[in-house]
């Protein structure tokens, strides 16, 4: 099962990289959202996949009776989902504000901080 | 719940002994800043109270870090596990000399920035949360320096990143939004790369505790295998992006000159250095064999970064953008230490990190004073500042010499060590690059000093005449809240330059703790180590 999911993750990564190479900010943001999901699936798969064995311990035992799903990657992915979601939300608002203020979502035209024909520093002393 | 008759020895899985009182200092920096940040956030409408609260909590943070460093020097490394679960099950905070030193210097710089911010951040900036963001940024920075768990390191990185976004767009100017878009997107990609590498590392070793991974790596038959080298290369790319090393440095000069000058000062001092720290921790301590495998690549990147920084600085006429390139040049010097990887080189890199944290923050603060006095931060429009304030001209010259690595200031000693280590390792080009970059930095800083301070007035002023400030603009005077932090940091620069022994001692101890992490492993796993 890992092999199939791995191929899917690879697909996600390629889509994400393709979108992030775009000059349109909106597409880059979509790429970042997909990248976040690709990373989450990668962590999840790295914890090894098992089917339908929740990591629960029966009431009268101290250790699970059979091999169960690995709970740690689930915790990691949960953390990563929360973080990447909040960052995505922030970047969405930031991109919208930038679009409002700068009038463009094309990154090549966002040259306010680094003007294109910047003056050279003073020559001579 | 589990009312069974089986008896289980909890001491196998949990720390059943009470934590010694002094060890609580390990979590104090994070706790103080989270509490202070929340309190400031709740009281953010009260703009008069904000600086007092913020500076107070930052002072507490400095005290806690002083206590922590003294305790680490006194009793050796300290490990504390969350929820009392023994490592590798619980998240461990492991404090060694390296982490404690950087955490202390970082908090001193943040304290100075808090004081400086009282003068430069207006009421709007205070209401939108300058102090809460600064405190929460320090939560992330100190947490990253003190944690002993790779995934936890990622979480601290995100904490400091989201706070830095808040600080970066504080004024909501057009230029800030432009800079923040580039900073935001590229840094998020960087942390995602970090997370990918961490996921793969977990897949290989099944653990996230740094000491546990380091032990498992050293037990491997072939620690320089291709899989590990891939993970190490990913880590290198991710942290190089965070540290603004050459091919992935473009977000830094695009954004660091846009926010309020005190925000730039904090960023230049702390953020890139956290990236370098993580690089040292992961490549030098956890994956030493893969670092050796990548040494030539790191060396080339270091040389390119040193040169990009120095030439970039020469080509700028805006003082803050010029300083941004100097940050990059400093990163190159620290990467040179990582490329060599010996105890000597690492002590040079750690010393340089401390120096760079102090001097870059001080330089940005000085740039803020310059633009306030001269009415501009463009070298073409500055001039005659020596006439206005000769003492400040002296301070700037000291900082310029320090960042170029000239004696007797703090930049001199780490550069000597790094060049020495590079030559000992047979990397003559690396040593030469550090020296050439230092020379070019001297030229760049000399130009700033000549244009802004030495000549009589802005471009076009005839020789022999002196004009103060921009014509038609009143000359603003910087208040004590700006001079005090600048003075503290400059005094530190001079003091470390004249009395480098204690700093050398600290950085050598930190370096040997990273290159030979026996003490680190013993601290986490106890006895046998």
Question: Can you walk me through this structure?
Answer:
The complex is a heterodimer of chains A (125) and B (529). Chain A is an all-alpha fold. Chain A has three helices and no strands. Chain A has helices at residues 2-20, 25-46, 71-102. The longest helix of chain A has 32 residues, at 71-102. Chain A starts with a helix and ends in a 23-residue tail after the last helix. With 529 residues, chain B is mostly helical. Chain B has helices spanning 28-42, 49-75, 97-120, 123-127, 130-146, 150-168, 174-205, 210-219, 226-243, 251-255, 261-286, 288-314, 319-340, 343-374, 385-388, 390-404, 412-424, 428-454, 480-498, 501-515, 518-525, and strands at 78-81, 92-95. In chain B, helix 6 (150-168) runs antiparallel to helix 7. Residues 1-5 of chain B have low confidence and may be disordered. Chains A and B meet through helix 2 and helix 3 of A and helix 6, helix 7, helix 10 and helix 18 of B.
Question: What's a concise summary of this model?
Answer:
The complex is a heterodimer of chains A (125) and B (529). By secondary structure, chain A is mainly alpha-helical. Chain A contains 3 helices and no strands.
